[in-house]
Amino acid sequence: MPEADLEELPGVGPATADKLKDAGYDSFESLAVAAPAELSNTADVGDSTAGDIVRAARDAADVGGFETGSTVLERRNKIGKLSWHIDEVDDLLGGGIETQSITEVYGEFGSGKSQVTHQMAVNVQLPQEVGGLHGSCIFIDSEDTFRPERIDDMVRGLPDDAIAAAMEDREIEGTPDDEAALEELVDSFLEYIHVAKAFNSNHQMLLAEKAKELAGEHEDSEYPVKLLCVDSLTAHFRAEYVGRGELANRQQKLNKHLHDIDKVGNLYNAAVIVTNQVTSNPDAFFGDPTKPIGGNILGHKSTFRIYLRKSKGDKRIVRLVDAPNLADGEAVMRVEEDGLKPE
Ligand SMILES: Nc1ncnc2c1ncn2[C@@H]1O[C@H](COP(=O)(O)OP(=O)(O)OP(=O)(O)O)[C@@H](O)[C@H]1O
Fold first, then answer.
1. 48 CB contacts (<8 Å, ≥6 apart)?
2. CA 234 to chain centre
């Protein structure tokens, strides 16, 4: 979707347009459904101007309104499912991580959030018949967690049939126990993971916009972008926007960031995984320690929420929370040297 020129709207000059864009209102559609009171706060305009903006945006927008159940079904039929290669978890998720949605993986330190993002950066590249989406991955790394060595471990740790299928797909000659072929396969998987480190929250937001461009550039390539990982979504925001006074500001920025991330998933039929740390230390500012930070905004946007909990040794409990059309439930997995494995 081309960027809308917000200055076409009544009462919107360059400064107001910038404020609106910073707050995530970057299209006529997003303004058309905004509440005028919310706009007048965000963009520092009077109530009546805000009302005019919303009305004009409704005229300009292609808001759509109603669509038939069959159109919705048609779009849903395109949803891909990215397998974990752990039956119990795939069953819990109705087949795997869905494209066109944001999946939030939250849990305390060491619960395995980054292991999940790494494993999915591998699995997404596999051919469909072995649970992948035959795509590449964009990895926004805000905590310096990305480790190519883990990708190496996890590619080698794939089931033999998946390794064989990937080798055939990439025209690598050899078998799953052939070291030279495995090395070639690992290199090729690393080639299809585009990693960028985010140094602060603004940089992270910029990278999400870049991710959209990158996905666009690769749309017709052999391995289009089918997974966007943001690990961690919230760490920079949490560190930079400290104190109650900053809460609204933080939420507004996170809202815009999630909006950009969501677009990548929707425009390119890609899966999106974001991680979010919760602390086991009671923390007055962030409230309930078992609730992910980000509050309501994150709650609305992440359509699938997976809560990871440490259990004995390398065991982890994977809990599905509040999914729109799936039952809540739990599964067990292990975090092992060669990746995520069934219990
Ligand atoms: N090479 C490995 N072999 C076996 N287990 C590993 C290996 N690397 C990591 N792990 C397991 O993964 C855990 C760390 O998981 P991970 O880094 O994904 O946690 P996290 O939830 O992202 O934590 P944080 O919030 O601190 O980033 C370790 O405690 C360990 O149990």
1. none
2. 12
**How far is 176 from 179, CA to CA, in rounded Å?**
8
Do 157 and 225 lie in a common domain?
Answer: yes
Closest CA to 189 of 210, 214, 161, 169: 169
Contact 211, 259 (CB under 8 A): no
Whether 67 is in a domain gets the answer no
Q: Is residue 69 assigned to a domain? A: no
Q: Quick check: CB of 107 below 6 Å from ligand 1?
A: yes
Q: Are 10 and 99 part of one and the same domain?
A: no
- Residue 108, annotated as binding a ligand: yes
Q: Is the CB of 256 under 6 A from ligand 1?
A: no
* CA dist., res. 202 & res. 228, Å (int): 18
Pocket test for ligand 1, best of 335, 336, 340, 341 (most atoms within 8 A of CB): 335
* Residue 188 or residue 56, greater confidence: 188
The structural domain count of the chain equals 2
Ligand 1 pocket check for 114: Cβ under 6 Å: yes
Instruction: Give the domain extent around 205.
Output: 75-342
For residue 194, the tally of other CB atoms under 10 A from its CB is: 18
**Would the CB of 277 count as within 6 Å of ligand 1?**
yes
Question: Are 137 and 124 a contacting pair, CB within 8 Å?
Answer: yes
Distance CA 52, CA 56 (A): 6
Atom of ligand 1 nearest to the CA of 115: 18
User: Which secondary-structure segment (H or E) carries 229?
Assistant: strand 225-231
Same domain, 55 and 127: no
Q: What is the CATH number of the domain that holds 16?
A: 1.10.150.20
Provide ipTM, 2 decimals. Answer: 0.97
pLDDT single digits (tens) 237-272: 989 988 777 877 888 888 889 989 998 998 899 999
pTM given for the model: 0.82
Residue type (1 letter), 194:
H
Per-residue pLDDT, averaged over 214-223, amounts to 95
